[in-house]
């Protein structure tokens, strides 16, 4: 028997924390520290966050890969809020069109892919090189289907060691 999921809003954001998962290619590691501490005599406690926008739960806007593309502030807010379908991916290497086709994805859907990355990748304090990624062909398939939003459980949609396909993957999703 299939388990029924209760209706409602679900926050799928990652918790910001010291030592959190980040892209190994980032020029600096995320830092979270107390700037002022009330328990040490300061009038207030102030926590300082030093993170790149490509850390934790984030949105890659078109400008991330397209010089004159729209920014996050140009994106309609309702693209990120509303019904979404979670597709559990079985392929241990990458998301492929073949696996997505079985789910009859429709125009305007919000698609979230759960892979073997969850929760291991985000709970790891070290970089996981062999994370499941979105293949270039699958990105094109999602773009052809006209998805409103695509999300997955990896810090980067493409494979981190190969810049040419990652640029093509991101461009396909932005068009």
Outline the structure in words.
The protein is an alpha/beta fold and 175 residues long. 18% of the residues lie in helices and 16% in strands. Helix 3 runs parallel beside helix 4 (163-174). The longest helix is centred in the last third of the chain and has 12 residues, at 163-174.
Q: What are the salient characteristics of this protein?
A:
175 residues, alpha/beta, three-stranded parallel beta sheet, two-stranded antiparallel sheet, 4 helices, 7 strands
Please sum up the structure shown.
The chain is of the alpha/beta class and 175 residues long.
Q: What topology emerges from the helices and strands here?
A:
Elements: E1 31-36, E2 46-50, E3 85-88, E4 94-95, H1 97-101, E5 110-114, H2 120-123, E6 133-134, H3 136-145, E7 149-152, H4 163-174
Parallel strand pairs: 3-5, 4-6, 5-7
Antiparallel strand pairs: 1-2
Helix pairs in contact: 3-4
Radius of gyration: 18 Å
Can you list the strand order of the major beta sheet? 3-5-7
Number of helices: 4
Shape: globular
Mean pLDDT: 85
Distance between the termini: 40 Å
Helix content: 10-25%
The parts where pLDDT drops under 50 for at least 5 residues are none
């Amino acid at each position: 028997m299939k388990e029924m999921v209760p209706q409602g809003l679900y926050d799928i954001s990652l918790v910001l924390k010291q030592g959190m998962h980040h892209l190994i290619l980032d020029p600096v590691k995320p830092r979270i520290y107390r700037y002022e501490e009330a328990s040490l005599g300061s009038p207030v406690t102030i926590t300082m966050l030093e993170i790149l926008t490509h850390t934790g739960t984030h949105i890659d806007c078109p400008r991330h890969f397209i010089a004159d593309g729209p920014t996050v502030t140009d994106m309609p807010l309702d693209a990120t809020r509303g019904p979404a379908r979670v597709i559990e991916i079985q392929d241990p290497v990458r998301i492929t069109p073949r696996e997505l086709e079985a789910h009859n994805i429709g125009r305007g859907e919000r698609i979230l892919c759960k892979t073997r990355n969850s929760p291991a990748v985000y709970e790891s304090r070290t970089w996981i090189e062999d994370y499941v990624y979105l293949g270039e062909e699958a990105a094109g398939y999602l773009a052809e289907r006209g998805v409103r939003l695509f999300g997955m459980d990896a810090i980067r949609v493409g494979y981190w060691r190969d810049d040419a396909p990652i640029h093509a993957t991101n461009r396909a999703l932005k068009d």
